[in-house]
Amino acid sequence: MLNDIQEVLYDSDQIQQKVKELGETISREFEGRNPLVICVLKGAFIFMSDLVKTITIPLEIDFMAVSSYGQSTKTSGVVKIIKDLDTPVQGRDILIVEDIIDSGLTLSYLIDVLERRNAKSVTLVTLFDKPAGRKVELEADYKGFVLPDAFVVGFGLDFAEKYRNLPFIGILKPEVYEK
Ligand SMILES: O=P(O)(O)OC[C@H]1O[C@H](OP(=O)(O)OP(=O)(O)O)[C@H](O)[C@@H]1O
Ligand SMILES: [Mg+2]
What we know:
This protein is α/β, with parallel strands linked by helices. It has one domain: 3-Layer(aba) Sandwich (Rossmann fold). 25% of the residues lie in helices and 30% in strands. It has helices at 12-29, 45-54, 105-116, 174-178; strands at 5-10, 36-41, 60-67, 80-83, 93-101, 121-129, 142-146, 152-153, 169-172. Strands 4-3-2-5-6-7 form a six-stranded mixed beta sheet, with helices on both faces. Helix 1 packs across helix 2. The radius of gyration is 16 Å and the shape is globular. The structure holds 1-O-pyrophosphono-5-O-phosphono-alpha-D-ribofuranose and magnesium ion. 1-O-pyrophosphono-5-O-phosphono-alpha-D-ribofuranose binds next to strand 5 and helix 3. Its cofactor is Mg(2+). It catalyses: GMP + diphosphate = guanine + 5-phospho-alpha-D-ribose 1-diphosphate; IMP + diphosphate = hypoxanthine + 5-phospho-alpha-D-ribose 1-diphosphate.
């Protein structure tokens, strides 16, 4: 698995430090609001579990599974809801937790769904941001790291369902997906 990585961008310690900073900011921002924290599966599962441990205020969590990349390194452009929320969002302050914003299509779709369900507010936190990939205008409220224009894996992010368990974020060697 490690042989398939071209370059490690951020290691586990660097990521944990950043997650802690994000958790502190979010704890201040959402004080007294009992946010519903939504993990966008599958990619955000590791960030979500690390992040909520650094948040010091009461919150609720729920999960939504959406997919648009499948076995490819390019978005299909079609965001499919594979698992919906169990919790009503009407009147709630929502914090969406994402692993990466690339084209922006996944999050713009999700924000639209939550606003149509009458959420009181929708805030975005992403661990990684790849602005060069954007197809729609979208900016996270809180972000961890800005990444170069390369396909990355690890810390929850996959290629064809592999590499999610790497404890760092790294660039996948193009020969892995070009063969
Ligand atoms: O900004 P975008 O171009 O939409 O890309 C970001 C989304 O793509 C990935 O999900 P994917 O569809 O691969 O599903 P997964 O989380 O199950 O891997 C990632 O986890 C984000 O949710
Ligand atoms: Mg994926």
